[in-house]
Specification:
- This protein is of the alpha+beta class.
- The chain has 3 domains: about 80 residues, no CATH class; about 60 residues, no CATH class; about 120 residues, no CATH class.
- About 25% of the residues lie in helices and about 25% in strands.
- It is built from 4 helices and 19 strands.
- Strands 6-7-8-9 form a 4-stranded antiparallel beta sheet, with no helix packed on it.
- The longest helix has about 45 residues.
- The protein is rod-shaped.
């Protein structure tokens, strides 16, 4: 049968075109569940879309999978497995949801994200990674104040090389439980801390100098544990020890000035004795001089 714009060839299979009483149309089937049902071979029904002027057709497949096939380049850019989970791809007025039907942003991924070198697990806390409009990256914060802003602790299993400066927080408003330090005690303990040069086992060619965390903690008890050293603590010990040494030097200076005054006085007495009876007064002079000499011999700058 042929009419203008319409043709049915002889030998066409049953139900090549089937129109039900309710207006539903079947292509290759009389079992209609939608307004248009297309049935085909094992791969399911398909619809081919062609350009009248360029041979770049596309085929839409439906059955045990859904796919859009580029027949010109023989590629399959869009494929949905029959085992795809619920809401694998959901587009709403808020954005695109992957694994969720309630996207809260332009792209909302629920259930984890995995890519080469990058993984986001399911139930990741809010603001785990945030990039603002200025290109600043926040980890644990949605208000980064620098190129990289980490709200929390940072663990680096390797070297951290900075082409800049390290500024540690030391604001008095952020501290509590202040206690005075006995500088002399700090200095005395410092003499028991071994200072040596060494290399890390994974960097044998690089030499360092300093104490071990175990020795430092045994001497002072500062720091998070006996495996790490905090620069604030080592710097604090060094400053306290310097202050103690400064006090010792000042005390020595006072003693030296006192002894110098006594020496000057004895010199004046010696001059006064010239031409007089030295012998009778020698014992008295020595009794004054002996403590001074013994004091000078006993004094040491350490």
């Amino acid at each position: 049968m042929q009419a203008d714009g319409f043709k049915v060839e002889a030998g066409a299979p049953d139900n090549a075109i089937y129109v039900a009483a309710d207006g539903k149309v079947g292509l290759g089937t009389a079992t209609l569940v939608s307004n248009l049902t297309v049935a085909g071979d094992l791969s399911g029904g398909s619809i081919r879309l062609e350009d009248m002027y360029e041979s770049k057709p596309w085929t839409i497949y439906g059955g045990n999978h859904f796919a859009i096939w580029n027949d010109h380049d023989n590629v399959n850019p869009f494929y949905i497995s029959p085992f795809a989970p619920n809401n694998s791809l959901y587009i709403s007025t808020n954005g695109v949801g992957l694994g969720t039907d309630s996207p809260a942003a332009k792209l909302d991924v629920s259930g984890g994200l995995l890519a080469d070198g990058f993984t986001v697990e399911a139930s990741t806390p809010t603001n785990t990674l945030h990039v603002d409009s200025a290109g600043r990256v926040g980890i644990g914060t949605n208000a980064p104040s620098s190129k990289l802003h980490v709200a929390g602790n940072v663990y680096a299993d390797g070297s951290l090389i900075l082409e800049g400066f390290v500024n540690e927080r030391s604001d008095v408003a952020s501290k509590t439980a202040f206690a005075a330090v006995n500088g002399q005690d700090i200095l005395d303990r410092l003499s028991s801390v071994p200072i040596s040069t060494w290399s890390y086992k994974d960097s044998p060619d690089v030499r360092h100098i300093g104490p071990t965390a175990q020795d430092f903690r045994a001497a002072y008890g500062f720091g998070p544990d006996d495996k790490h050293l905090a620069a604030l603590d080592t710097n604090g010990v060094a400053l306290a020890a310097i202050q103690a040494l400064d006090e010792q030097v000042k005390e020595k200076d006072v003693r030296i000035q006192t002894l110098q005054g006594q020496v000057d006085e004895l010199r004046m007495q010696m001059k006064a004795l010239k031409g007089g009876a030295v012998a009778p007064r020698a014992a008295s002079l020595w009794s004054q001089l002996a403590p001074l000499v013994l004091g000078l011999l006993a004094w040491s700058p350490g």
